[in-house]
Amino acid sequence: MANCDFxxxxxxxxxxxxxxxxxxxxxxxxxxxxxxxxxxHWRADAHIDASGMVLAPGFVDAHTHDDLELLKSPLxxxxxxxxxxxxxxxxxxxxxxxxxxxxxxxxxxxxLGETRxxxxxxxxxYRNKLKASPASINLALLAGHSSLRLGTMPDRLEQxxxxxxxxxxxxxxxxxxxxxxxxxxxxxxxxxxEAASTDEVVQLAGVLxxxxxxxxxTHMRDEGDHVIEAVAETLEIGARAQVPTIISHHKCAGTNNxxxxxxxLQMIDRARAAGxxxxxxxxxxxxxxxxxxxxFVRGAASVLVAESEPHPECNGRMLDRIAxxxxxxxxxxxxxxxxxAAIYFEMDDDDLERIMAHPAAMIGSDGIASMQTPHPxxxxxxxxVLGHYVREKKLFQLExxxxxxxxxxxxxxxxxxxxxxxxxxxxxxxxxxxxxxIDRATFEQPKQTSTGIVSVWVNGKLSWHEGAATGARNxxxxxx
Length: 480
Ligand code: ZN
Ligand code: CU
Prior knowledge:
55% of the residues are buried. The strands form five sheets. Strands 8-9-12-13-14-15-16-21 form an eight-stranded parallel β-sheet. The protein has a seven-stranded mixed β-sheet with strand order 3-2-7-22-23-24-25, with no helix packed on it. The protein has a four-stranded mixed β-sheet with strand order 5-4-1-6, with no helix packed on it. Helix 7 runs parallel beside helix 8 (227-241), helix 11 (319-326) crosses helix 12 (330-337) and helix 14 (377-392) runs antiparallel to helix 15 (398-405). The protein has 480 residues and is an alpha/beta fold. It is 30% helix and 24% strand. The protein folds into three domains: 2-57 and 423-474, Urease, subunit C, domain 1 (Roll), CATH 2.30.40.10; 59-108 and 123-286 and 347-412, TIM Barrel (Alpha-Beta Barrel); 287-346, D-aminoacylase. Domain 3 (Dna Ligase, domain 1), CATH 3.30.1490. Residues 63, 65, 91-92, 219, 248-249, 366 line the site of copper (II) ion (CU).
């Protein structure tokens, strides 16, 4: 008889592949899954009875801004409590590393951290810091295009990069990938990168080809009236650079654009049918959240001010009411409230469901932990999909949902030996109650753990159990 650390018995095991669940036992030794099926020939230190529960691969949050959160709050309760065991950080063009920042930072950088917190000229010291003080969950990092721009051409952000600046950014990106980044992200809809040309991005993304499995993830140039052109540009960049491409938090924003996910998904389908590797992530809400900027206010059905530095008394109020009280335009109200963050109600339920149900859709939360009143997606995304969209709305099967949260993102981002319950894989696991799982985070009270997550293991260590973190900090920095 061989020894193992623990055996989980009685659970309905959903392995992440999208295939049907099975009632099997799972044995874990140190940080790996060592057996699946009848595990009676193992001598285990502990037996866990999981009758009535679902055992799934720990969730991979395909889109996060947790770069700093893992250093600041290493238990990462907002994620661990949802069953998330790995996060993809560095999204939307803004990564904490590589960047040593000085002076005031343009939006959306302040969402991620303060200037003094961007203290990593390369990825190596960031990685070392995480290694010296590990978090409860794993993290893989994308290098942000806006971070590269700010580090390389801080005085010329409103211009397209010239050949020299592109060369410098390519060098910095190459180093970031050598030091463990898994790809490049852009935020072409934001001030630090708006002026970047398609060519600039193609030349940078081209560097990814030198590294196996490196990916290009993009917050596209437009998610509203020009979303079709933006998808076309994204597909062009991916095709010209010949790299796997991921559209971040896919949506069709603004009341004008309700229904247009039919067109965007068709474009994506056509590219995929032609052999182009392209996928996307999505969060399960019809409101978005980011810096308060006039360009984002236009088109939204309504806007909630999440927090304003000069006017904290406006936190939690609707922008149009604030403007009415001040007898000024929405644009002027934005200006007076800035620096500020907002929640934009701007999407259609049908679009959201159509996007989520698409076979290429991964689940990503896109939450911003630094906000005092964050969007509820930060704490609620994964249980909301499982409870609201699967159990209550029957949008798709539980097996499909788990696939979108585990094996699919693990494959897209090429996270080795993760994302499925397979012998030899890391024991990143979540045990949940399929009958009760649900998010509790709301727009009014966003910082709330969910119901129904029983246990979470990260690299074989029990890290969340019955409503609380165990204190284990067994997360790793994931590289290709
Ligand atoms: Zn974004
Ligand atoms: Cu984002």
